[in-house]
Amino acid sequence: MPKALRILFDRVVTRGHLTITDHTGTVMRFGDGTGPLVHIRLADRASARQIVIDPHLAFGEGYMNGQIVVEAGTLYDLLDLLARNIGAGHPPAISSALDRLRYAARRISQFNPRGRSERNVAHLSTPEQNCIGGPE
Asked: Which of 2, 48, 110, 116 has fewest C-beta within 10 Å?
């Protein structure tokens, strides 16, 4: 299991009982052991890397793709455990830095100055191109 993943969960999961088995069979335990056991298995190395890079997105995508499998407990138990711990711990510096980088990239890609906005509106101004006001 990547060291960054261990650091991430050590800092974030301080309450509850989370066990993670990685693709090599390494078992790690996080939290204070209270509450129901939630045990997840990471099917491949890529899923662990994605969790470190973008945990908010990686959990949902990994679960849907079968890369993150809930072995004990339910998906609801996992989400509840993570939700109870959000804000309680401190994410590693790399996670915080990646969050800031994603935020900056999103702001740049969504930048919409007046000129671009006018071109976007002009593009939809003819009835043939405008699906709302097009010919009937």
From this structure: 110
Domain range for 64? 3-107
Straight-line distance from the first to the last Cα atom of the chain, in angstroms, rounded to the nearest whole number: 60
Token output for 11? 């800092």
* Number of domains within the chain: 1
| Residue 65 falls inside a structural domain | yes
CATH code: domain of residue 13: 3.30.1050
Structure-block tokens of residue 126: 């003819």
Do 41 and 69 touch, CB atoms closer than 8 A? yes
> What is the C-alpha separation between 17 and 23, in angstroms, rounded?
20
Q: Give the number of C-alpha atoms closer than 13 A to the C-alpha of residue 66, restricted to the C-beta side.
A: 0
The verdict on residue 116 lying in a domain is no
Question: Residue 122 domain-assigned?
Answer: no
Q: Which two tokens stand for residue 47?
A: 């899923």
pLDDT digits (tens, 9 = 90+) for 49-97: 888 887 778 888 888 888 889 999 888 888 888 888 876 555 556 566 6
pTM assigned to the model: 0.62
